[in-house]
Amino acid sequence: MAEQHDEHTHEHQEPAEPVQVIGEEPDLSKGTARPITVVGNPVLHRECKTVTEFDGELSALIDDMFVSMYAAEGVGLAANQIGVDAKVFVYDCPDDQNVRHIGHVVNPVVEELPVDRRTLDDGNEGCLSVPGAYAELPRPDFAVVTGQDKDGNPVRVEGTGFFARCLQHETDHLNGYLYIDRLSKRDRKDALRQMNEGTPRYATVPND
Ligand SMILES: [Zn+2]
């Protein structure tokens, strides 16, 4: 997912100091930044493969994903956004209470919410794979994702507010969907127009 965005100023705002950090900051010396795939690249538009090998290669992929996410100033990144067909995402994202969440999920599934937790939040959303575009998209303001960690142990991650949006956005990626696929035809067209009018601030993979 793209950085948190202020739709009124269109300027990057430094987030406030987090009140708490959940998760560990990755060792960035281990990874390499890779260019980001953009809308139209087939790897973004089909379901990724389930991860079955919890080995050094997966660990190295996660290292590269963190470095790539920070290089592009994102708050979340799915493996297919660096061209890898595998169900993994990473995140470093604030929630509603300004708690900073850092981590990764392998083979994520978004849990069905009980009816009383289905409150829609119509915040702004952006995506590193749709550079420079933002659109309002209602999503539940609470999300639970289950999956595995890089060693294959079960994990369960809960999020509120912007982090709930991030968890849903990244899981969508791995199922072959971009947030613009959830927009009306008109809003989708507008997002693509915003993208085409700008130049990404980070390296992207050119589409054929
Ligand atoms: Zn995205």
TrEMBL record:
It catalyses: N-terminal N-formyl-L-methionyl-[peptide] + H2O = N-terminal L-methionyl-[peptide] + formate. Its EC number is 3.5.1.88. NCBIfam families: pept_deformyl (TIGR00079), PRK00150.1-3 (NF001159). GO terms for molecular function: metal ion binding; peptide deformylase activity. It is an enzyme of class 3 (hydrolase). Residues 1-15 have a biased composition (Basic and acidic residues). Pfam families: Pep_deformylase (PF01327). The keyword Lyase does not apply. GO terms for biological process: translation. Residues 1-20 are annotated as: Disordered. Fe cation binds at residues 127, 169, 173. Binds 1 Fe(2+) ion. The lineage of its organism: Bacteria, Bacillati, Actinomycetota, Actinomycetes, Kitasatosporales. Removes the formyl group from the N-terminal Met of newly synthesized proteins. Requires at least a dipeptide for an efficient rate of reaction. N-terminal L-methionine is a prerequisite for activity but the enzyme has broad specificity at other positions. InterPro entries: Peptide_deformylase, Peptide_deformylase_sf. The keyword Nucleotide-binding does not apply. The active site is at residue 170. Keywords: Hydrolase, Iron, Metal-binding, Protein biosynthesis. This is Peptide deformylase. HAMAP family: Pep_deformylase. The gene is def. Belongs to the polypeptide deformylase family.
